[in-house]
Design brief:
This protein has 149 residues and is α/β, with parallel strands linked by helices. It has six helices and seven strands; from the N terminus they run βαβαβααβββαβα.
Length: 149
């Protein structure tokens, strides 16, 4: 079970996602380029001491991630507001990787096409999207609910 952040732009979101991964016992992958320095103070502050429980694996590019052992370890599930399948209707497996796109633009079409599936978190009418870290936490909680510890 891994959380993947595609080119995160906000250090605090990435830090909070690291914390969520640690709390749910998941690994975390961050795909560059970032919208902040990899050693950004905001990232460390948001992750707090949870970074030691879920040390992020950094990938220098999408292609580096795509050829990594982490990517080959399971299905890549994109979290997208455009997906047809609600997250609660999807059967997760323990080796799945859930990916969140950039805060401003999601993922490009070639990255979307490389994903095995896409799911969405149902939102109230008029709501556009959750914060990236909140999205990751919801997905990890649903995965844990389904596959257990």
């Amino acid at each position: 079970m891994r959380l993947v952040l595609y080119q995160p732009e906000i250090a605090q979101n990435a830090g909070a996602a690291i914390r969520a991964a640690a709390c749910f016992g998941a690994g975390i992958d961050l795909i560059e380029p970032f919208g902040f320095p990899a050693d950004a103070r905001g990232l460390k502050r948001a992750a707090m001491d949870y970074g030691a429980l879920a040390p992020p694996t950094l990938h220098t590019s999408w292609s580096a991630f795509a050829s990594s052992e982490a990517r080959r370890s399971g299905r890549l599930i994109l979290l997208s507001t455009k997906a047809a399948t609600p997250i609660s209707d999807f059967a997760f497996r323990g080796d799945d990787l859930v990916m969140i796109g950039r805060e401003s633009a999601g993922v490009p079409e070639d990255v979307r096409a490389a994903c095995d599936r896409a799911v969405r978190i149902p939102l109230a009418p008029g709501a556009r999207s959750l914060n990236a870290a909140a999205t990751g936490a919801v997905a990890l909680a649903e995965m844990r609910r389904q596959v257990g510890w």
